[in-house]
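Batch manifest, entry 17 of 40.
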Amino acid sequence: MTIHIKPSKTLSALLVSGLLLTSIAYNTPSFAQEKTKMEEKKEMTHSTDHLTPLQKKVTMEGGTERPFKNEYWDHKEEGIYVDVINGKPLFSSTDKFDSGTGWPSFSRPIDENYLAEASDTKHGMVRTEVKSEETDAHLGHVFNDGPADQGGLRYCINSASLNFVPKADMAKEGYDKYLSLFGE
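Output type: structure tokens
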């Protein structure tokens, strides 16, 4: 089968006989040369050498730490909670609340674009898993039983996936733009 195609600036043709997607491009990269966001993400490397065995189990294997036996479940100091792998700011103490579950709970992230969500059907339940967008680290789960006056969401997050940066240290650690979360 021969298909004659008149070239244009960017032209893609689907050859039905072979179901092959071909790109004919002038002054633009071909589909084969362009990297998808997923491919770029897979190429990104984030060192996990600094993680404890529990942090690796939680973030890399989707594990869960014990309730009421973790570092931040009842932590009340002002500051931000960052990704334990790369330090990306994820949650603020201004959005933290006591859910009674034994894990740190937040009504919202600092920026929704810093998180990714996926369906989780492990353990005979249907839940929404929360992961770090940049590192793909498992953080915890989000539920719709949070405080109604704060949006109704409960981000139930493993302490092992987070590091805490006290408000007093935020500027010197490079998080000064997030001081506005505290009215500064």
